[in-house]
Amino acid sequence: MLNTEMQITDNIHKVRAHIPAHVTLVCVSKYQPVEAIREAYEAGERHFGESRVQELKTKIPLLPEDIRWHFIGHLQTNKVRDLLKLHPFLIHSVDSLRLLQTINDEAAKIGMVQDVLLEIHVAREETKSGFLPEEINDLMVNDLMVNYPHVRVRGFMTMATNTDDEAEIRRCFSTLKELSIVNSQFSILSMGMSDDYRIAIECGSTMVRIGSSIFGERKKRLKAVFFDQDGVLYNSMPYHAEAWAWAMTKHGLPYTAEECYRNEGRTSVGVIQEHYSRMYGKDAPQQLIEDIYKDKTAYFNQMTGGFPGTIPGVSDVLRFLHEHGVQCWVVTGSGQHNLIDALNDIFDHVFTGIISSFDVKHGKPDPEPYLKAWERSGFKKEECMVVENAPLGVRAAKAAGLFACAVNTGPLPDSDLTDEGADRVFPDMAALLDWLKNSPDISI
């Protein structure tokens, strides 16, 4: 909910009380309406931060010309030209030599010199991006002004580890301060947000980026989506169902396609063990497990040629998320190397990581697969969600404490998914994409 003008002004005064005169306040206005930004402007603020080029392009003509716009989000190289045409005051998130070179080349084409900050990776999280501190000294030796004459590096930016451990947060900020002392030609240290800006200032920050403490809480920001594989990415479940029914029955364990759908999400060993135990009250012999799985896999490959095709519309969902900087992960109980290995090639390398049956001790409906993906993502649980199509997958997601969307691509009724706790159920990927674009619950 948007704060009133008086609330925004009061919030600014409260924040300003803790910011020394030499520290620049950047009001993080991404996803905020123009009216809120104008209210902060009328309260005296001039520095505003945006993270999406298209949103910035929309806002600039509607607001005063003396605003100094900071680009603070992940910047894709294919968006650089459009961003530079908007003449941003400062780009905070230059995280690679490739991006630095692209900014230099595009700035040269329009005859400008662009001010930037180098993003430094000091957090203990795989998902944070940027240069490593030890890379910076080598970069300085190469003489930035000679190699990138249309870029002016003004300093460094970082984000602390996502933790409540103040000692770890101080370690992150102190590391960047030490780097700035060695490279004293750069004057800006952009570090500190709503939750940690006071610590950042104590550690030497000269620029803080504050949003929720000024404008109030926004919709939940989605940062990672964990996709099941079969029935969500691959249109494979009809073939799996037929292959399981054929192989199980061949080995004296009568099995139906419907049972396959209800057990979808389990590892292959788990499927066989569950069914055998239900029939005989004991564990299945190892040789039987191997024989059934071998026959099932051969029959599946015979029907599909090894690749069953993709779910209609899922590529559009993945492309939308990837273009907006949302991580996409695969979390599958599958152990089929050919399907797992092909995922990135088929879906244009959008996946940050893959959790398969090879990575866990307990498959779905145990929460371990989704918990492992969440831990590796480095984000808060409220910043993540799951896309499933199977009741047991939904159960695993909810047991992991994650928001679960279900796309019902199979024959089971929606109630089987909602009974397991699905937060949203969609009939197809087009409906999921529409919700992602227009949801009142999340922002992308």
Brief descriptors of the model:
444 residues, alpha/beta, TIM Barrel, Rossmann fold, DNA polymerase, domain 1, eight-stranded parallel sheet, six-stranded parallel sheet, 16% strand, elongated
Short précis:
Helices cover 43% and strands 16% of the residues.
What does this structure look like?
Helix 11 (237-250) packs across helix 14 (286-304) and helix 15 (314-323) packs parallel to helix 20 (429-438). An eight-stranded parallel beta sheet has the order 7-6-5-4-3-2-1-8. A six-stranded parallel beta sheet has the order 12-11-10-13-14-15, sandwiched between helices. Strands 9-16 form a two-stranded parallel ribbon. By secondary structure, the protein is of the alpha/beta class. The chain has helices spanning 5-16, 34-42, 53-59, 80-84, 97-109, 133-141, 144-147, 166-182, 197-202, 212-215, 237-250, 257-262, 268-280, 286-304, 314-323, 337-346, 368-377, 391-399, 414-418, 429-438; strands at 24-28, 47-50, 68-71, 90-94, 114-119, 151-157, 188-190, 207-210, 220-221, 224-227, 327-331, 351-355, 384-388, 403-407, 424-426, 442-443. The protein folds into three domains: 5-216, Alanine racemase (TIM Barrel, Alpha-Beta Barrel), CATH 3.20.20.10; 224-234 and 309-443, Rossmann fold (3-Layer(aba) Sandwich); 237-304, Putative phosphatase, domain 2 (DNA polymerase, domain 1), CATH 1.10.150.240.
